[in-house]
Amino acid sequence: MEYDTKTPLYNTSDKTSFAYISAKDRWPVIITQGIDDVHRGIIASDDAETQKQGKQIVEGMAKLKYELQHDRQLTPLEDDGEPDIAGYNKELEQLGNPTWFDVPWLYSECYMYRRISTLFKRSSKWTNYDIFARQKISTFKSSRPAVIELAAKYKELVTQLETGKSAQQTAEAKEAADKILFMEMSEICLWGNATDLSLLTNLSYEDIQKLQGSEARKASEKNILVNDLEAAYETLLAAKKAGKAERRVDIVLDNAGFELFVDLILAGYLLSAGLATNVVLHPKSIPWFVSDVIPADFGALLNALADPQAFYTSQSDDDKHAERAPSPPLSPTQAEELSFLFDRWSGFHAEGQLAIRPNTFWTEGGSFWRLPATAPALHDDLKQSELVVFKGDLNYRKLTGDAVWDPATPFTTAIGPLGPSSGVRVLALRTCKADVVVGLPEGRDEELRQMEGGGGDSGCRKWAWSGKWAVVQFCDGKA
Ligand code: F6P
Ligand code: MG
Questions:
Q1: Which of 1, 144, 216, 433 is most deeply buried (CB count within 10 A of its CB)?
Q2: Probe residue for ligand 1, chosen from 433, 463, 469, 472 as the CB with the greatest number of ligand atoms within 8 Å
Q3: Do residues 174 and 35 share a domain?
Q4: CATH number reported for the structural domain that contains residue 68 in this entry
Q5: Ligand 1: which residue has its CA nearest to atom 8?
Q6: Residue 415 Cα, ligand 1 centroid: separation in angstroms?
Q7: 259 CB near ligand 1 (under 6 Å)
Q8: What family is this (predicted)?
Q9: Taking the CB of residue 141, how many other CB atoms lie within 10 A of it?
Q10: Which domain holds residue 111?
């Protein structure tokens, strides 16, 4: 806490904030869905001990939901053998053992997911169980139209890069084309974040499919409120021109499924275009904020692409449960394009050019303001990178400390110790799904509030809650 910003933090007690709405309306739904999922696991098991432990986990989640809905105190986390428990409990004490509706939003939301995780880690039969796995893979399946569209585009692009078609262009024309492609790939990667599963409580599958298509992306360009992609591109190009042998890009991941798919599109493009020689992906270590990537999700995505026909046409238990009709088979071209992706990505992975590197820092309860002081080894590792891309809303909240900044505060100020001279180049690709926002031109927040659904004079920054608007912000910590 001593390393955090002194700017006040968003708190669940503020009824005009999304903090309050998420605690009141969203978290109970998320916990209930988790309970349902474990129930299904219990029914599917014929082992008495698994069933018994499953019931204890359900009781633990029901207790958590009760305490939340009755505004009880957050209780210290029970020891599950992991080293981060002490930090969570120390902070809880420092916060004065708060109640659910009067606690900093960021800490309490992390605490909720960490507490659910203790229930599983303390069991012997459910230790690595992910209550969100079914949702993650089935939403990826329902992203089929956008996945197919992007796979075709990716194959064409990478084939052009590899067969040297683009080499016939002049160096200047090639650079201009590379820049446009970089911007497009990054924007695909940005909007892939608009559809995280924790918002599924109010979005239908059809809504999601509409949000993922290329038409939607073009229409959304005007919704990027600040766009620093050019500056980020220039740093990668400069490193390439300087002839550096190892040029690494890191992606601090957000959600699994479609978003991870587009993250891999960006990663694969950077490697094929020579804008990076290595890409390191940073997933979470425990099930987190519903849809966040854990290492198993990476494997699940590659497995799906390894045999795309089987993945799309087979009906999973989850499809049957949701009464989803079986999908029609892929055309041979579509199946081939998806297999192309699999070959490339698994090839990069096997060669060590695409690595996945978990760290428990990402699931601690605090902001990234603490990174240099509390996770110096991770900080040093990120300094080795040319560019660290932070995906999504939660990472943005953690970068900015989830504090009530004036929205015109420069991004470089709001990220504190990860700002100038931190040694880390930060690029945030974030669709706005929470109150905190910085780096806007003076007066822009007021304008957005006055637009339809923007919050008006209610005191709520409603425009920033839906994922419709985005910010792409860069800070060169090596400058
Ligand atoms: O529960 C609210 C929240 O933490 C918001 O920050 C956001 O709506 C969502 O959960 C997580 O979004 P993302 O997956 O983009 O981090
Ligand atoms: Mg997420």
A1: 433
A2: 433
A3: no
A4: 1.20.930.60
A5: 433
A6: 18
A7: no
A8: Belongs to the damage-control phosphatase family. Sugar phosphate phosphatase III subfamily.
A9: 20
A10: 18-131
